Amino acid sequence: MQNTDAAGHHADLLIFDDSLPTGYSPFRNLEYGHYLSFFDAKIVSTEQHPRDRDQRFAAALEALKLDPALKARIVPFGDGSAANGRLAYVTFLANASALLPFFEALELPFIFQLYPGGGFGLDQAESDAKLLPIVASPLCRKIIATQKVTKDYLISRFGCDPARIALVFGGVFESRGDFDFHRDKQQFGRQKDTLDLCFVAHKYAGDLVSKGYDEFVRIATALASGDPRLRFHVVGNYGAGDIALGGAEAQFVFHGRQPSDFFASFYASMDAIISVNRPHVLAPGAFDGFPTGACIEAGCRGVLNCINDPLELNPSLTPGEDFILLDFDLDRTVASLRRLLDDPDELYRLAYANWRKYLTVFDTDRQLWARTRLIVAELARQPPAAMPAARTSIFHPDPVQAAMEKERRRLVAAYQKLEGEGKRLAEAYHVLEGHYHAAEGERKRLERYIKVNDL
Question: Is there a contact between 104 and 81 (Cβ–Cβ < 8 Å)?
């Protein structure tokens, strides 16, 4: 059932999306939930269900794990009457392309977040035909590029002004969760007697290659030979019948498609995630970001990323120090992983370094604040919401509008204060972590001494 109050309410920020409400897209729920809390905002769902849209929408909204007060501001697009606001925010090329005529009809300015996928491909006529009018539109006030190759492409292909592009590497994923590597990480030889490698991705249109599932199976079956410690976990709409498992069937576990809340306990028991994806396979010009969203989530939960980078998108990670870089050389990949699996101490040292790096590079607050600043700056450039003429005199400023502006400034200042406090806490944690490592090193030294001296 549509919330008519929210549908008719004028909002500063309108977030358009074709998937929400859903429990299967953590970045959407995290990013958009933040905007609902921080701004006078509402989410306009453009997902279309021809026959039972209202019932399905209501059921999905009811199941969504979000504050009820925020859920009340998620409304279906319907005939467009819900789109009453000052600034729009839209993610993925296909969504922005479909909504551009609507934005133009309303003269509604928008910010466009351009992730890989969602209809965006490099050097593809169909993708370019959708992207060009968006880039050319004066209503498109800012483009958020999450990969450097995307920013470079916008500039070189369309002559886009670099000042209109904000490069925010990565995506919005939860790094502030309750996971602590030292407390929660399940390790081989301590909390469990298996070494667990996983593959996490969605299968599109029966494709087994673009996300690297075929390569995962090749690697897994090569590693499985003679090593009963190993387990291979597959999350997504894949099954045992997709590709022959080469006699390693008993070591594979298929979990199917899972909602976001499945992964907290799942990743705590995983040792490494393997992702060897291939660009230009699912569709010409299609590519995945680096790292994939699943790999970012896993890394923030202490799972060592063993991944490839076919388009050389990596701007800040160091192979062999905070992740393992793979390629399509099967023998080299298997040898590298086998060395790691035979040395669990090194495996977990790298996993810990991976975790620390990802908490910094993909810090949730940093990612959200980078985007929030852009929205605040653009809203500040927009005229205030239309009010009745008698209440907009420059000699008699509207008290409601003035109060809202005062509250917005207070919230911005509070957010900046919290951001600073978060940084200070992170620094304090880093110091405590150093003390912990020193104590852990001393403990291991004493253990070796006792063992050598048979005490």
Answer: no
